[in-house]
C-alpha cells in the first residue's frame, strides 16, 4: 500500500470509516500515545505552571486525550470533519477547529505556550489542487510563519512526521528557519527501520531552556538503540511520568484512564442523546465489539 | 466547543485582512455552560495574554457581566473564579463569528468553527 497522503486528500482519506478504524486500533493508539509523550518531553515546558497548547492536526484526539490527562489546556486543529466528529464523541476537553493548516493559522501573536503535532506534516508535502496556493512550499510557508507568530517567545513546537526522504526534511526545516524558527531535527532510533521517528523540534527565541547560555539553543538528542524495547520502555516511562505529573498538577485536573469498551460507548451515546445531538449511531450488538487490527 | 479563552485569541486570517481583524463578532450564538476544574495557577499565567476589553464585551454577549471593565491589580479568589467561569466554562455551540474588518463569516456548528478559506482568500 502506498502512503496515505498519496492516496487522497486528508479530509477524504479520513472519512467516517477510516476515522473510526484509525481511532479504535489499539496498536495505533499505543504508537500515537508514545509519540505524544515524547513530543511533550521535547517541548520541555516549565513544570511550575500549567500551559496552553496547540495540537496541530489533532485528528480524533488520541494526542489530545493525553494533553487532558496531563492537565494542559489546549486547542486542536484538523482538516477532516470525520476525525473531529470522533474527537467530539470521545469528549476531549480541548476546543476543536476545522482548519487547513496549509492556509495559515488565525491566532493573535504570542497566544500559545507551545505546540505539538503528531503524524501530520507529511500531509503538507503533497499538493491538494493545482492552484498556486496549493504548492507544498507555499503551504509550508503559510503554516510556519503563522505558527511562529501564534507562539509566545520563548517557546517550542515539536512536530513528529513521516518524511519520505532527506530532501523532504531539508525542505521542511529550510522553510521553518525562514519563518524565524531555530532548532532542528531529532531522530529517535535512527538505525531501526521500524522504530525510527523524526521530530522537528523548533524554537521561538531561545527555545526557553535555562538562561541565555549557548547550549539553550541546542537541539535535544535522539533516543538510541533499535527501539525493540520501545514498547516496554515506553510503558515504564509513562508510569514514571504519570506519577510525577500527578503531584505537579495537584491543582490541575485529573482523569482516570479512558477505557473504550461497550459500556463506555453506550454511556457516551446516552450523554450525546441527552444533549440533543442528532445522528448518534444506534446501539447494536456490534457496538464496541472487539475488532481485528487491520494492518 | 469554542470556549471564550479560545475566542479571545482568534483573529481573521483571510488574505490581506491584517488590521482591525479581531475580536470576531458573535452572531446568533447558542451557549452551553459546562463545569471545568478551577485552576488559579493557570489563570494567573494566562492573564497577561488576554485582550481584556474583548473578553468583557464577549462575556456580555453571553450574558455574563461578572468581569470588571478594567483588569484588576489584586487577583482575589472571587475575581479568579469569575474569570475561570468566563474563560473556561462558557462554550459557544452554534452561531457565526464575523470578522469586524472584512466581514468574513466563520460558522460554528456542533461546537466546531469552520475556519476553512476559499482559494482566493488564501495568501
Ligand atoms: C495520522 S493522523 C494524526 C492525528 C492525531 N495527531 C493523532 O496522533 O492521532 C493525521 C491527521 O492530520 C490531519 N491533517 C492532514 N492534513 C491536514 C491539514 N492540511 N490541516 C489540518 N489537518 C490536517 C488529518 O486530517 C489527520 O487527522
TrEMBL record, chain A:
Chain segments carrying region Disordered: 210-259, 273-295
Ranges of residues in domain 18S rRNA (guanine(1575)-N(7))-methyltransferase Bud23 C-terminal: 205-293
Bias (Basic and acidic residues) ranges: 233-250, 277-286
InterPro entries to which the protein is assigned, alphabetical: Bud23-like, Bud23_C, Methyltransf_11, SAM-dependent_MTases_sf
Main location (coarse class): cytoplasm
GO cellular component, one term: cytoplasm
Subcellular location: Cytoplasm; Nucleus
UniProt KW Nucleus keyword: yes
Superkingdom: Eukaryota
Single annotated GO MF: rRNA (guanine) methyltransferase activity
GO biological process: rRNA (guanine-N7)-methylation
Record-given protein name: S-adenosyl-L-methionine-dependent methyltransferase
Automatic annotation (TrEMBL), chain B:
Pfam entry (one): Trm112p
A single GO BP: rRNA (guanine-N7)-methylation
GO MF assignments: protein heterodimerization activity
Secretion signal, residue range per the UniProt entry: none
Subunit structure: Interacts with TRM9.
Similarity remark: Belongs to the TRM112 family.
Protein name per UniProt: Trm112p-domain-containing protein
Source organism (scientific name): Rhodocollybia butyracea
Upper lineage: Eukaryota, Fungi, Dikarya, Basidiomycota, Agaricomycotina
